[in-house]
Amino acid sequence: MKTQQQISQWIKIYLAEILEVEPEQVDENYEFERFGLNSSAAVSLVGDLEEWLGFELSPSLFFEFNTIAQVSTYLAEMAQEENTLENVA
């Protein structure tokens, strides 16, 4: 199960590669608009993140949440729920 911190770091590294900057330069409290994240980049990011996390995500995830901090907190909660459901089944 991935933690909020692990998810945040993964997204920072992903965005840093796109922006050609160091991950430390990607502030998790900046709104995604500041990174210039267009819809096709957001869809690619969601697809890669789904694969890494192991569960399906909404294609509009990065438009529903404004910052990496918000998204990673939400996804960590989802990961915990997924883990709980797997343990019940």
TrEMBL record:
Keywords associated with the record: Phosphopantetheine, Phosphoprotein
InterPro entries named among the record's database cross-references: ACP-like_sf (IPR036736), PKS_PP-bd (IPR020806), PP-bd_ACP (IPR009081)
GO molecular function: phosphopantetheine binding
Gene3D superfamilies, sorted: ACP-like
Domain of life: Bacteria
Carrier domain segment(s): 5-79
Protein name: Acyl carrier protein
